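User: Please predict the structure of the protein below. I'd like the answer in structure-token form so I can feed it into my own downstream comparison script.

Assistant: Understood. Taking the following sequence of 418 residues as input:
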Amino acid sequence: MRWMAAEHPEIDLANPDSFVHEVPYGWFDHLRSEHPVFWHPERAPNQGFWAVTRYDDLTAIHMDWRTYSSELGAVSLEELDDEQLEIRKSMLETDPPRHTELRAICSKRFSARGVGKYEDWIRDVARDVLDRALPMGEFDFVPEISRDLPIRFLCSIFTVPQEDAPQLISWGDQMIANQDPDLSRAVIDRDDTEAFRLLPFRSPAAYEVFDYADRQRDLRLADPRDDVINALTVAQSEGVLNEQEFHNYFGVLMIAGNETTRHTISHGMLALMEHPEQLKLLQEEPDRIPRATEEILRWATPVHHFRRTATRDLELRGAEIKRGDKVVTWYSSANRDEEVFPEPYTFDVTRTPNDHVTFGPGGPHFCLGAHLARLETKILFQELLPRLKSIELAGPVERIRSDFVNGIKRMPVRIVAA
């Protein structure tokens, strides 16, 4: 049965406006308690989806790719026809064994050992970013710090010019934040985006990303390098990737990888400003920062949800899910599940255990960039916090209009350096 569709019309998780001022945690609390598998209607042409809000259910779904497929539909709420799905398919929209084959192209480069060799370089970049930003005293934390570090590091491991970073950030904003009129040239739920239906995120910025990827590939063909783009280039030349798969893979790594880490850092700094006793503890005991990084990741949850598609009829907590139904797992809810995290709305940098699902619960789709995101976040706060005598908000925090990415686009701060 598809219950709850009419009982709570105020709950609208498919409306990006519901996430503009804050994450609607109150709705998630209610759903976890009363209707953890909830049929959520959508505006046409979408058909609706099952909203899954509990930690244990999310974990079970993501570990069972045979029942809950990534390949039968997008990983977002958008419903794609067969042509769209085939052309727009990235590594995210595949199941094993194809997913395993695609992941293997770059997995060693994003392993703990693969990214660990960059630790000193990341620390140097973090210091450079802070050396430039902190003397300003008052500035927007997002463009000056949290957005700058991840993209500069990605430019390094992709061996593309550092001066390309602002353009890569702009393309990422336009694609990932495709529901925000401040960031997107084609707002997916407001503008006519039919001309872009075959592009990732229905974003015209994808054309420019693909052109950029092609230019970088041509450079590798002429002069091979030991980098991620070269690995993708070799995979294409060997027939492992076709051209559109090369484009989509490049976009996932370069664009999505930067966006999520940046929002984690922004939310982490905001949480520390809102909980000064936690900030003081980390400044006095910096050895706690690696553990604190896990709480920052739980607290931030930079991606609200991922969607799967049911491969067969089944029942989950009494809900009768039909083959082809969208099943949407809400990470923002699972990371606040009181059955897993005692006092989930307490920001506690000493929390242990802290088995958050920010990178996924495991399984084939566990985040490829998890080790990199952890390392960048840890290093940024290790370098930043000792330099702060004080930090406070200097204006309102502005969130990205999105039901997919939990992002901050502006966060003015005022600091006094130590």
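That's the full token string. Residues 14 and 43 are 9 Å apart (CA to CA).
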